[in-house]
Specification:
By secondary structure, the chain is mostly helical. About 60% of the residues lie in helices and about 5% in strands. The chain has 18 helices and 5 strands. Strands 1-2-3 form a 3-stranded parallel β-sheet. Strand 1, helix 2 and strand 2 form a beta-alpha-beta unit. It is elongated, with a radius of gyration of 27 Å. The chain binds tryptophan (TRP) and iron/sulfur cluster. The site of iron/sulfur cluster has 14 residues, from helix 15, helix 16 and helix 17.
């Protein structure tokens, strides 16, 4: 068999795909997302992603994992950071409200199946697909202090594709910055299904081909198909094949399709996922830029009280308010954006009036924000407490989740190996 060489260019979606793209998540649909363990999570993670993860666990089948291999693609020289952060991050998740009874929490590196699927997908993935992922060049430029001209870094969106496809996830809750990775995942699934499986509408097409047989032959064919697939009866397979061969009404395509239908190989092996776009966090960093550890402008999810107070008190404000008597403009102040997240309407009115008339001082204005953050943190700290005092409980949760994930991952890999003919 010759290797596929034509790069796949996305064309206009087929009708069935358009229908799928406008589809809404249904209760029970599989959801998957991951985070890199590169340090304590902060309030930007909470408002940008975690809060949504918690909401989704109520009625979706959610898989959330610690992407430690992904962290290594950028932090391969600082493994201590990752090591320290794995279980801390899971505590942050539990603190935020993820409930191990309602979602599956697991650790990527415990599941070599991810690496296996990554390897197999890599065979047919054109280099150009990876080079064109926007985060590839962006991140290389942003993280100039690290050497990211590595094979692992180039390939990491395909590893992400494997993470998603191995659970046949329908929905991937991520931010806009990750949308291109989900698109690559769809392409990888489509190519895999094209090369090794059948189109998603294969079943409909096969049934249409069955209809071309005479009524009694169609009935006999279906009986043979069911018998072969349920018991592997070689005799039934032979009967089905004889019916295909004997019919004069079938085209070559019909015959090929019915052979696949009979053998049960005609199915979409990998599921094309969709982004479940999470709105960008409305909570910026302390300086008004995006909240990010590398900018040093974060408040950790479990930051202690004294530190929260100090950080908010030191936040920059509208530069026009030099003296207490200078009026200000909330639109030019990062504290105002915190009020949008943490304060109710009367408090916000109080801020606007007080700021623009110099009726309140900035420290006074910041107090409700401090109170709001501490109020939000309170239940999180309470939820985290038993896991901090009994770290084994966190490990047990991850162990149990990993074993649950493994069942699904193994099932998919069995189908993948079979589809690729790797079961000699
Ligand atoms: N790449 C993601 C990030 O950097 C993390 C991630 C890895 C992920 N695998 C995933 C997210 C699969 C969603 C689905 O944040
Ligand atoms: Fe910012 Fe509040 Fe000071 Fe106005 S009063 S500049 S909104 S901190």
């Amino acid at each position: 068999m010759s290797a596929p060489t034509t790069p796949h260019t996305p064309s206009a979606p087929a009708p069935s795909e358009q229908a799928r793209q406008t589809a809404q998540p249904q209760p029970g649909d599989r959801v998957l997302s991951g985070m890199r363990p590169t340090g304590a999570l902060h309030l930007g993670h909470y408002h940008g992603a975690l809060k949504n993860w918690v909401r989704l666990q109520a009625d979706m089948s959610c898989y959330y994992f610690v992407a430690d291999w992904h962290a290594l693609t950028t932090h391969y020289e600082s493994r201590e950071v990752i090591e320290k952060s794995v279980y801390e991050m899971v505590i942050d998740w539990l603190a935020a409200g993820l409930d191990p009874e309602r979602c599956t929490i697991f650790l990527q590196s415990r599941l070599p199946e991810h690496a296996e699927l990554f390897t197999l997908l890599a065979m047919g993935t054109p280099l150009g697909w990876l080079e064109r992922v926007p985060t590839y060049k962006d991140q290389q430029e942003k993280l100039r202090d690290r050497d990211l001209s590595t094979y692992g870094f180039l390939g990491y969106p395909l590893l992400q594709a494997a993470d998603i496809l191995i659970y046949r996830a329908k929905w991937v809750p991520v931010g806009e910055d990750q949308a291109s990775h989900v698109e690559l995942t769809r392409e990888a699934a489509r190519r895999f299904n094209h090369l090794y499986g059948r189109a998603p509408d294969f079943e409909q097409q096969a049934l249409a081909s069955v209809k071309k047989l005479s009524k009694s032959d169609a009935r006999a064919f279906e009986a043979a198909r069911v018998a072969y697939q349920q018991s592997g009866s070689v005799e039934a397979l032979g009967q089905g094949q004889a019916l295909i061969a004997a019919s004069g009404a079938l085209s070559a395509a019909d015959r090929e399709r019915l052979e696949g239908w009979l053998r049960g190989t005609g199915k979409a092996i990998l599921t094309e996922p969709q982004v479940l776009l999470t709105e960008a966090s409305k909570l910026p960093g302390l300086d008004g830029a995006k909240m990010s550890k590398s900018y040093g402008n974060t408040i950790a999810l479990r930051e202690d009280k004294a530190s929260v107070e100090q950080k908010i008190r030191r936040m920059p404000t509208d530069p026009a308010r030099v003296k207490r008597t200078d009026p200000g403009n909330p639109e030019k102040c990062p504290v105002w954006q915190f009020h949008q997240v943490y304060s109710d309407a009367p408090t916000r009115d109080w801020v606007v009036r007080g700021c623009t008339t110099a009726g309140i001082g900035c420290l006074e204005c910041k107090q409700p924000v401090i109170d709001g953050i501490l109020r939000e943190q309170q239940p999180m700290l309470a939820r985290a407490e038993p896991y901090i005092s009994q770290p084994q409980r966190v490990r047990d949760i991850v162990d149990a989740g990993t074993e649950r994930a493994r069942i699904t991952a193994r099932e998919t890999m069995r189908d993948v190996r079979e589809a690729m003919g790797l079961n000699y």
